[in-house]
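Handout, section B. The chain below has 320 residues.
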Amino acid sequence: MFAIYKKFDIVNAKSSSYSSYSKGNIPFITNGPDLESSVKGYIEPLTGDRIFNKSSISLSSFGEAIIPPVPFVARGNGGSGLIVLVPKNDMSIDELYFYASQINMQKWRFSFSFMAIKKRVERIILIEFNTSNEMNIDKKIKKLLPKKTRTIKKTDIDIIKLVNVVYNKKTKQGLCEVSKSTSVPKNALEKGTTPYITTSSLNNGVSGFYDIEPNFKAKCLTLALNGSVGEVFFQFEDFVTSGDNAVLRLKDKYNPYLLFYIATMIRNHKWRYNYYRKLNLTKLNKMQIPLPYKNNRIDLEYIEKTVKNCYGYKEIEKFL
């Protein structure tokens, strides 16, 4: 066993706030984790940013350890900046995962009032990696991931227009009808088969399955107004949710590709909101997203081909 500083340089991240960056190719790592390895987006670094070019362990303020893609910039402004554990000597990806998993088992040490800072991280004790027990992490991950498919040729678009997400009855403009509903708290329910959608950013928002009648039909979007504000998911099954989620259903004919496109565009607005600046129906009614147009109509063919080109599409196609 050894103290973490014996094998890692403990480095404070240095960056500006995410909203100050222009789009680029460098992953911006934030507090997480989430399904995208805590990558908030891809940015063009600014002068003075600390860019990490070596495979390292990113440690959130709450002790969550992940291994970001390199190169990367980590959240470093404010009181909840990240710490990056940079190996003093070369390490295999297996060794990094081995140590990251141990750190995650100790994240109970950290909280909002006792965040991971350098002097606290230095106290973490780790078990030495044994090179005779290689885990072949890269090979195992590659087997789990969907295979890439060949690109579908897309046609050119005429123009991009900003369109309201929510349909307005007066102007007769907009894409979706929005609704909310109350629900019995999940802790008052018995286990069953109906998915209960919360404002979580994980598992499509499903926090469990309960013995209750669904209050919404499938093939629509759920949008978190609270919790993980701005998180949006396509729902494949009839479900139950509370008023903390808005439910978006296309005003016109059902089109799964358009729904996936809308979900992605809404998710691009997530940076505008947080737990203290929640999303509500007033703000949602004003939200606009860019849509491709051709011959003065939404270019649904372009959108469909874009969605079908997305990595992992084949895994969900049968549910649409």
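Note. The helical segments are 93-104, 118-121, 137-144, 256-267, 281-286, 300-308, 313-316. Compare this with the example in section A.
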